[in-house]
Amino acid sequence: MPSSKSPVLCSSASDISRKGSTSVASLKPRKMKKADFALPTQGASKKEFKKMRRLFNKELETVKNLVIMHIDEVNEELSALRREIKQMNLPVVVSDIKAFTQRMILLECEMKKAFEGMDVPRRFERVDRKLGALSDDLRSLKSAKESEREQRSAREASKSEQPKSGGTPSWEDVLLIDESIGDEEEQPPSKGDPRKEAEEKRPAKRESKRAEDDVRKTQEEIAAYSKKLTKTKHEIFSVGYRIEQAWKKMNDCPKEAKRQIEQLKEEKYRLRQEESDLVKKIDKGKERLRGYWEREHRPGPSRSRGGV
User: Fold this and answer.
1) pLDDT in tens, 156-185
2) Region (Disordered) spans which residues (predicted)?
């Protein structure tokens, strides 16, 4: 037995020396030989395992010492934090914070319910509608004042054109009077005749009153349509919410949920159609108001012309 083992040891030693020389000499690949595949002996493997065990034991000892040191440091920090927490009385503070957050959540829920009960969004919409109606009224009042101012200025201009009865006539007036003596009966009444002015004002007053009545009626129609439109929008929102709830019940009773969803979809389609009709009516009313306003502010015929 010892004679059989000795050549293996010699071959392994020669291989090790050869490998070292080749690694130092050159890095070129060499052709593998049969002796390179020889297995190490039991003693050599035991020596290698002992070396590895010693290395592992050293590494484990160092790691163990480091872990123990870190654990001691962590324990010291934890004890210091516990002392600080006891001094600060943090559990009481945490419980107070939790109670405060719960109260805030309850208060938020109560405020939401109160706002829903008070119907705040609809009130804001009503205020917006009233503000819009007030702005329309202000525009109509401004247009009426401007038309009245124009009529007054035209009246004053016509009065200033009439000759004064108490003053001395000029040479031009005398010549004009001499030329028009024979044609007095054929001339129409003068522009400053009060009866004619009153007759001219009556249809204008009737027309302005009719226009004011139409404007007021149109504004009332727009307000009614806007109120109905707001109600329709709320109904559409509620129908959408009911559709979502029906979809959630699809797993429990699919047939009933499907039937309910179909009915709600038909209702939502009807409400959408009603909403579009109301929007069209409101737009038509606004167009009529715009037409009234443009008619009031349209420049009329020149009032400076007339018989001389």
Assistant:
1) 777 766 554 444 545 445 444 444 444 444
2) 1-31, 141-218
